[in-house]
Amino acid sequence: MKKLLALGVGLVALLLALTLVAFGIMHTRYLTPSAQWLTEHLWPEKLTFSELDYEYPLHFRLHNVTLETSANPLSFQQVDIWLSPQLFHQDKWVIDSVLLDGANFSDGLPDNDFLAQLQLNQLALHNIDFANHGLIARGVNLQVKKPIWNNAKQWLPYGELQLSAEQFYWQGEALNNVLIDADYKAQDSTVYGASFQWRGGEFSGQAEQYPAGWSLVNVTISKLDLKDDLSTLSAPWWQLAKPYLHHINSLDVLSSNWQLGETKLTNLALSLENLTIDQSLWQQDSGYLSLNAESADWHGLQWIEPTFKLEFRPGNITISDFATELLQGSIQLSGDIQPSGIHLHQLTARGIKWFAEQQQDWAWLDSDLPALKNLTIDQWDLNNLQLIQLTHKPFWQLSGLNVEGRNTELNRNGRWGLWNGKLSISANSASIGSLVSSQGVVEMSSKEAHWQLERAFLPLENGYVDATANWAFDAASAPWNINLHGDGVPLTQLGQWLPLPLKVDALAEIDLAADGLAGDYPMLAHSLSGELNLNLRDGTLVMKNSDALVVQPFSLDGLRLNADRGRLSLHETPLSGPTLNARLHGDIDLVEPKQGMLELEVTQRCDTQHFDLLRNQQREEKGSDKACVLAP
Description:
Oligomer: single chain
Number of strands: 37
Radius of gyration: 45 Å
Low-confidence stretches: 1-22
Organism: Vibrio fluvialis
Largest sheet: 37 strands, mixed
Distance between the termini: 172 Å
Strand content: over 45%
Domain AsmA: 1-571
Structural class: mainly beta
Helix content: 10-25%
InterPro entries: AsmA, AsmA-related
Pfam families: AsmA
Shape: rod-shaped
Protein name: AsmA family protein
């Protein structure tokens, strides 16, 4: 028994001695060659290093490390290993922490086989460069607590991680100064904080992963200049991320310049809340958007300091606090937008000056408004507007224009008109061609498409026009009537609307009373009835005959045009003037208007000119030589 006890004590003493020897070597210059000899025998041609340092109690540092793998060898400038007191567990080496420092993987990232064979409490990478499937990374630093790899191809392990990089570059786009603090899992991951720079813009924020996708939380984008259209943005980073984004909890854009469709926004400030990215605007549950910008260019119009707020509900978008400076004036509005149309509660515009000198000045009207299906405005006031149209003749302008509308329905199912409500229109000056009116007033109302022109009074340079009218334009037969009186009405512009074989200028006194049905042309052709009385003074006819251009002063009294159920008759009415022998007569049946006739006959000396006013034709009838001799 004493011998066995002595043998046991001897073995323990020997183990203690060997341990003391090994511990002693760790603090001498023999540590590196001893460790190299040991690794060469344990893992021949697998692991090499130039130097090994030891720090009490379990920290080892290897310099210039090369690890042979089934693919390319892995080389690091330095590897730090903190061993665990429990060195081996469940067939894996247990290591508390590993720091891999200084590596360049230009041929792709290595498989994680060698790390998967270890049980790590913490993995850290420092100063790593790599290129992998077109992605180039510089200055990557990574720290992961309890890293987990599900397969050998998973290059970023699951775990609580902090990642930084000088740059990620892919397909011509770069993310710079990347920082990420996240809990990365197979599902339900969380990004506690992230920031990077892209195209000069600065991005920061948080994110949460749900089964439907990622939700962005407290994201801020600042100083981002986008020359591409955001609605069709093809940047590879965006195309890569877009399928995984599902929801915006909160996102702010500051001091940025963006292009969105036909709109260019300068110095944009934008806030988004509770928006689902993969749903249309009409499907949002309770989203919010606010926007203001230094300027917005849209279809050639520059909006100065636009600002508005949008609230999203299923099938409805509420717009509030909309205000902007536009065309030297200002606009404010609020209302609701739905897929079926627009309902504005309030619209105010002041001092706007619109000049149409080129066809492109109409672009904003041509491209968007025709698609509107329904439009109602509860209250609108337009004050001191100026509209000038110089793109095609006849030119026209409205200056000092004021419009007051109450409870107006202006578009129903794509048809424009005053369906309901009241409108009052006035203008300091209005003109079309050479026809000028000052201080004109128009008042109208409508109830369920029964439109009434209650007053139209247009003072002219030498007279006025006064009219009232009714039109049930949505009824099947669309009955209408009009009463109009005018005095001193110039006919200078008559040739702009009616092509005539001669030029007519005069001041007209007009009395018109007419009614009919406007459901379609056959209804009008069988229903038009009424009477037109016309007197012309200070008139001039400019006629061209075979010999010369003739300028003939004239006047006309007592012209009466009768209409009876679409049949128009003009009794022969003479024109009077020096050396003038002329008469005007005609008959037209609107059922067959091409068979009608409206003719002016002018006889001078022995020749007669026949002017067909319906067909814009002229023929000359010469008298006999004897008649010419006898003519005065």
